Amino acid sequence: MISFIICLIALILGYLIYGKVVEGVFGPDDRPTPAMEKADGVDFIALPTWKIFMIQFLNIAGTGPIFGAIMGAKFGPSAFLWIVFGCIFAGAVHDYLSGMVSMRNGGIGLPEVIGKYLGTKMRTAMLVLTVFLLIVVGAIFIYSPAVILGGICGSLTFWIVAIFIYYIIATMLPIKKIIGRVYPLFAASLLFMALALLVMLLVKWPTIPEIWDGLGNRAMEASPTWKDNIFPCLFIVISCGAISGFHATQSPLMGRCLGSERMGRPVFYGAMITEGIVAMIWAAIGSYFFYASPQPGYELQSVAGNSGFATSAPHVVNIICRDWLGMVGGILALLGIVAAPITTGDTALRSARLIIADFIKVSQKKTKPRLYITIPLFLLTFSLLMWQVANPEGFGVLWQYLGWFNQCLTAITLWTLTVYLIKERKMYMITYVPAVFMTIVTSTYFFVSGQLLGLPAMVGYPLGLCVSAVVWGTFHLWYLKYKKSVGTNDEGEKI
User: Quick check: 259 and 87 in contact, CB under 8 A?
Assistant: First the structure.
């Protein structure tokens, strides 16, 4: 538990110290924001900062920092380090700059930002990738809560239809109508649940593996069926609690509601650090559940039908909340498992609508243009949803690929932000280093992961490094040409 406490303190200090550094690199000022210049009462609308923070937190969090942290905890204490370093030096930087760069460019969506700094071809490619990712998120987060609710009352079909209708309404309506009113309450519930579990952790003070006990792959020691290596799999499994490309689609959404650039750090950087804290809490709970000494948590609790190391993340959530927090905990668990994915899904599809609108340059102020985009978007989502329902393994297949696509988007966004900082003659190393790292992660995962190509390590890792080297080399060729064209040295100073 000492490692856990140190990591929590590190996250808070990361916001106070490194967050200030990143803010200084970007340089927010008092210029009018898109919420002021493009106010339309629908998507561009100034909201109170506290409300934007709560919406941003819920948009990027959902169940991501819960399920991912629990599954990542199976690797051992290395999960703690990834959450801390990933969140402070990569994830929060990624979320902050993607929101602020969008604001500096009139509140445009992620593909438009990528297109401006990486070229029109990349813009088109990222439009397809981003919209596909958001549709998959929407489809997954209709199906999973519908299954849970169908097991409580009603039928699966009823809940799929009900959630689908809600998605359409939430995507179409002005952001203040539903999202601005309800989401802060959901976010507050998630924060309350995390705080309550933190208190229980401190009270129980379980004996869990410490960082100095070793950073090896404990999962391989615990389960003979475990095949995933820490690198790169841990960095894919824990995404939302450390760094996630999906967040870059959400930050512009809230960037359209900020009344001042100076509120960017508490909203974007702060929401990511808060998510990291939530992930740390659940990673510690996961460590308790799988590795507590002298007995793991699952041996101390009733886990009928779902016992042992292979217990799924949703069952861990249900068991812990019920046993630690009682009836209130059960309600909060239901809220976390059901409401959180629903809210993530509808904002994903809202982002998809806005991204498409930006691409085809169609104003979303009036209802008809919104319908023109929403109807085909939801037809695609519905088709994917029906395929998922018809195929027993559909959910698992989509979830496996979602993680990889998500981190690919992360890497591309970081390269985009690096180019932005270079062109603005700012300290680009804050995004360059994470960009290189995430490129290596996604490239090697593609070749060695059993969910993708599943090549032997001696083949997959070299191939991943070769792909990463090509990306790195392409960037540096551009960098050398750019320096020559503008006449600057490595520090961005004119020569």
Answer: no
